Amino acid sequence: xxxxxxxxxxxxxxxxxxxxxxxxxxxxxxxxxxxxxxxxxxxxxxxxxxxxxxxxxxxxxxxxxxxxxxxxxxxxxxxxxxxxxxxxxxxxxxxxxxxxxxxxxxxxxxxxxxxxxxxxxxxxxxxxxxxxxxxxxxxxxxxxxxxxxxxxxxxxxxxxxxxxxxxxxxxxxxxxxxxxxxxxxxxxxxxxxxxxxxxxx
Length: 201
Hints:
Elements: H1 5-14, E1 20-24, H2 28-38, E2 43-47, H3 56-72, E3 78-80, H4 86-92, H5 104-123, E4 128-131, H6 141-155, E5 158-159, H7 169-179, H8 191-200
Parallel strand pairs: 1-2, 1-4, 2-3, 4-5
Helix pairs in contact: 2-3, 2-7, 5-6
């Protein structure tokens, strides 16, 4: 089990061939640098499962930008977009709605989306699954990896350690978004983070 970024980089250099990886992506900007790194070592498909995003128009806008950044970067990566079912997200975080960002509400949101990714990866013969979420300085990478490894054991599929903010990953994602004119949202995605952001202004 990989537990740090140094060992993760060593692992990448030891990969034989380009195994199939299902990458959960929250949005185009966060996927830009992550994909530029991972496509060197894996055959990647993007899984855009984000029932947490509010409103519905924002969900589809981010999906369009996800497709656009892949096309503009000429990555040739498949994008899979499951149907939008926000009620599933609300059920996942029930009772934690008012806890604020960086709370157990976010933990449950990570788990909710990573579990959907793990299930799809297992059902469709991927070798690995992981998420772009760890590229953000606002996301808890320790939580993501804890959840990912637990789900990997539950569904008998390999989870790929992630901490993509390392080596200035977040800064690189911002620069790529500017270079390719990709929309960057100013809130995490859920209605609660949107309301909290408005209250802070």
